[in-house]
Design a protein that fits this description.
Elements: H1 4-29, H2 32-52, H3 59-72, H4 79-95
Helix pairs in contact: 1-4, 2-3, 2-4
Length: 101
């Protein structure tokens, strides 16, 4: 059974939920400059995690690396906000062809 279609639908649903609910909430709790800085650091961390943990099935390790990287750089944003930023960065990097797996 090919579950690719189901996985793609779930990813699309998560992206829609993040766009509709979580992003507006994050914007209400932070300044534009804080959001830009967080997104920039998340992109750096996600790119680094992709280089360090190559291959599929390492999503949890990659995510933990990003969370640890952000904590080391002074980001004390709540976990939901950081998770949303990570998902957005991964989606953008995937659409740009930077992340393949």
């Amino acid at each position: 059974m090919n579950i690719t279609v189901i996985i793609n639908a779930v990813i699309a649903l998560i992206a829609a939920i993040v766009s509709t609910f979580l992003i507006p909430w994050i914007k209400s709790k932070t300044t534009a400059q804080q959001r830009e800085e967080l997104v920039a650091w998340v992109k750096i961390a996600v790119s680094a995690a992709e280089q360090i943990y190559k291959g599929s099935g390492k999503g949890a390790d990659k995510k933990q690396y990003v969370l640890d990287f952000l904590a080391k750089n002074g980001f004390t944003v709540d976990t939901d906000s950081v998770n949303a930023a990570i998902e957005a960065a991964v989606k953008q990097l995937n659409s740009e062809g930077i992340i393949i797996s």
